[in-house]
From TrEMBL:
<feature type="signal peptide">
    <location>
        <begin position="1"/>
        <end position="40"/>
    </location>
</feature>
<protein>
    <submittedName>
        <fullName>Arabinan endo-1,5-alpha-L-arabinosidase</fullName>
    </submittedName>
</protein>
<keyword id="KW-0732">Signal</keyword>
<comment type="similarity">
    <text>Belongs to the glycosyl hydrolase 43 family.</text>
</comment>
<keyword id="KW-0378">Hydrolase</keyword>
<dbReference type="InterPro" id="IPR016840">
    <property type="entry name" value="Glyco_hydro_43_endo_a_Ara-ase"/>
</dbReference>
<dbReference type="InterPro" id="IPR050727">
    <property type="entry name" value="GH43_arabinanases"/>
</dbReference>
<dbReference type="Pfam" id="PF04616">
    <property type="entry name" value="Glyco_hydro_43"/>
</dbReference>
<keyword id="KW-0326">Glycosidase</keyword>
<dbReference type="InterPro" id="IPR023296">
    <property type="entry name" value="Glyco_hydro_beta-prop_sf"/>
</dbReference>
<comment type="pathway">
    <text>Glycan metabolism; L-arabinan degradation.</text>
</comment>
<dbReference type="InterPro" id="IPR006710">
    <property type="entry name" value="Glyco_hydro_43"/>
</dbReference>
Length: 356
């Protein structure tokens, strides 16, 4: 999710109050205002660039969540997404004016790498009221091209849209606008933001998305174009209008895992964001949590939540890397700055993920 938004209709008027708008703006500084950070704002538990996945364990025995692993350089982000490049490096995109880019060679040191659309994205302004701030990108690399799904909206509104851009290099200014994928209007019961592309074992392309309103949705895409294959919109998770967003689906060990963020971001150190997960044997669900509660009924097993000086971790991405699965996310430091968090993911004896 992004730094300037949004509960659903029942909360929209409250979130438009000047005090909360000011708090949201202070909680997030866009890419033009994010200084280089010498290191993460909390003491890292380990260097995640080299740490190996540990044996399975039961997360119920974990005394506390670990701190984020060591990251340095330009680590101010919001809503990060990451992909491995053909050369073995890392490309990160995140919420910001014209969508901000960062690169890393080792998953530890990050540097700013410009924006996706240095000349702006005029086709989005209908949804942003003229703002250049674009939200919650999702990066993948398939068939020799980077695919970037991203969203355009305004705080507290579901007049929103998801677009696609592609590039063969991933560099700033190299991206081609591929058009509108899906939009939502104020008459709809969903919000077309926070996209995530998932390709299942049969080669079918799926796009999950959603925030507040009636929850997380799923549409099927045409692998040849990256655009919608049909008009069906499936519901795969929800909290009866409550705070849920930022879906990510990954396949591991015969299950499809649906990660989401519960509760509220964008309030600096007062943010309550947390990472939740459910799983299904089908990419379209039903997804259930560890206790068997359907995610369409508010279910979700907690993977990561605020602890110590790590506030409101969420808007997660999962990367399959050489040393195992890696969880990328943003969190807020004590001073309210939004920073990049990285932890390794393990799986317990029952196949449920945990951070370490």
């Amino acid at each position: 999710m992004t730094a300037t938004r949004r509960p659903g209709p029942a909360r929209a008027s409250r979130d438009r109050r000047p005090a909360l708008l000011l708090a949201a703006l202070l909680a997030f500084t866009g890419p033009t205002a994010l200084p280089s950070e010498a290191s993460a704002a909390v003491t890292p538990d380990r260097d995640v660039s080299t740490a190996a996945v540990t044996p399975d364990r039961d997360v119920s025995t974990a005394a506390a969540y670990p701190n984020p692993g060591l990251v340095t350089g330009d680590i101010g982000v919001h809503d990060p997404t990451v992909v491995r490049t053909p050369s073995g490096g890392y490309l990160v995109a995140h919420t910001g004016d014209n969508i901000a880019l960062k690169t890393s060679t080792d998953r530890t040191a990050f540097r700013n790498a410009g924006t996706v659309f240095p000349n702006g994205a005029s086709w989005t302004t209908t949804y942003t009221n003229g703002s250049r701030n674009l939200w919650a990108p999702d990066l993948t690399y398939r068939n020799g091209r980077y695919h970037l799904y991203y969203s355009a909206s305004t705080f507290g509104s579901n007049r929103s849209a998801i677009f696609l851009a592609t590039s063969t290099t991933g560099a700033s200014g190299s991206w081609t606008h591929q058009g509108l994928i899906i939009e939502s209007r104020t008459s709809d019961n969903f919000n077309a933001i926070d996209p995530n592309l998932f390709v299942d074992g049969q080669g079918r392309w799926w796009l999950s998305f959603g925030s507040f309103w009636s929850g997380i949705k799923l549409i099927q895409l045409d692998p040849n174009t990256g655009r919608r294959l049909d008009s069906t919109v499936r519901s795969i998770a929800g909290r009866n209008g409550g705070a849920i967003e930022a879906p990510v689906i990954v396949s591991r060990g015969g299950y499809h895992y649906l990660y989401v963020s519960f509760d509220l971001c964008c309030r600096g150190a007062s943010s309550t964001y947390r990472v939740m997960v459910g799983r299904s044997t089908s990419p379209t669900g039903p997804f259930v949590d560890r206790n068997g509660v359907a995610m369409t009924s508010g279910g979700g097993t907690e993977v990561l939540a605020g602890h110590g000086s790590v506030h409101g971790p969420g808007h997660q991405a999962v990367l399959a890397d050489t040393d195992g699965d890696v969880l990328f996310y943003h969190y807020y430091a004590d001073n309210g700055r939004s920073l990049l968090g990285i932890n390794l993911l393990g799986y317990d004896a029952a196949g449920w993920p945990y951070v370490h």
